[in-house]
TrEMBL record:
One of its GO terms (biological process) is polysaccharide biosynthetic process. GO terms for cellular component: membrane. Keywords: Acyltransferase, Membrane, Transferase, Transmembrane, Transmembrane helix. This is Acyltransferase. GO terms for molecular function: acyltransferase activity, transferring groups other than amino-acyl groups. The keyword rRNA-binding does not apply. The lineage of its organism: Bacteria, Pseudomonadati, Pseudomonadota, Gammaproteobacteria, Lysobacterales. Residues 15-266 form the Acyltransferase domain. It holds the Pfam family Acyl_transf_3.
Length: 303
């Protein structure tokens, strides 16, 4: 978001377009999954992995639930609001050299980072270091021109991939701890920012890895893929009826996830996005009608 909006002036029309864009991007797929999960859990399968009941339905509809993979949605939505404060602080600093708002925003973020281990996992403060890394590298990316050495970047990209593979294979001994400890670590936030920053450049390597048709299709429906992968794995385990998982099932499950995600992207995300954008634009950005000033009648000519 810092890459897309950080250099733009912060005013009501742009902030309204930003809010409309962010909400319309996640709301259709997310709300569809929440409502479908509620029906499945209460009417079909009481063991469904997204256990949305009468007690927590409202929380999830308000983007504040914590069931399974849906826990990550609240911090993301909350950061959409936090970013507006960062955006206005950048504007104040650039236009008026006013550092007051910038100091207030950075001070608040640093305080949240210091106490992140004591904050709920669904609160943006517990993951603020990841978002801050994204903002910093996004702003840096806006200042990097086309003259950057792509060969050097390709070497760095290959090195980062090698490091990740080394950690996965156990060649590089990195103790990541529990999932909660992983999310609390500052080093992983910094590494994630560096990784995304490096692969934002179109080197020969990144084009081969990310520019192929399968990866581009996956990128289009990545949010639906994130929401659906766990239910699809759960459904596969139910079909297997207690049999141990087999590696041979990985490919069919991946293919099913991509197919289901693409279908939801085409049938729900895209139409929902268009509808919400139009509705948001009509509510927030429709031009106000100028008041009609009554014309004075012209006095008759005198001869």
């Amino acid at each position: 978001m810092a890459f897309l909006y950080g250099e733009k002036p912060a005013n009501f029309p742009l902030v309204a377009r930003y809010a409309i864009s962010r909400f319309s991007r996640i709301a259709p797929a997310y709300l569809t999954v929440v409502l479908a999960s509620y029906l499945i859990y209460n009417l079909i399968d009481p063991h469904f992995v997204y256990a949305i009941s009468h007690d927590n339905l409202l929380r999830h509809l308000l983007f504040s639930g914590n069931v399974s993979a849906l826990w990550s949605i609240p911090p993301e939505v909350q950061f959409y609001v936090v970013f507006v404060g960062i955006w206005f602080s950048l504007r104040a600093f650039r236009t008026n050299s006013n550092v007051t708002l910038m100091v207030a925003v950075l001070g608040t973020i640093l305080m949240l980072i210091a106490y992140r281990a004591h904050l709920p996992g669904t609160f943006v403060g517990s993951k603020i270091h990841y978002f801050l890394a994204g903002v910093v590298f996004g702003l840096v990316r806006t200042r990097v021109g086309a003259s950057v050495n792509m060969t050097t970047l390709a070497v760095l990209q290959a090195a980062v991939i090698g490091l990740v593979l080394g950690v996965i294979e156990g060649v590089v001994d990195v103790h990541l701890g529990s999932k909660r400890e992983l999310y609390l670590t500052l080093e992983t936030a910094g590494f994630a920012g560096i990784f995304v920053f490096l692969f934002s450049f179109d080197t020969g390597l990144s084009k081969r890895l990310l520019g192929n048709r399968l990866m581009m299709l996956s990128g289009e429906c990545i949010f639906s893929m994130y929401l659906l992968n766990i239910p699809i794995i759960y459904a596969a385990l139910v079909v297997m009826d207690g049999l141990p998982p087999r590696p041979a099932l990985a490919l069919p499950i991946i293919a099913s996830t991509i197919a289901a995600a693409w279908t939801m992207y085409r049938l729900i995300e895209m139409p929902g996005n268009t509808l919400l954008r139009r509705l948001g634009t009509w509510l927030l950005l429709r031009p106000s009608k100028a008041p009609v000033v009554p014309r004075r009648s012209r006095p008759p000519d005198r001869y």
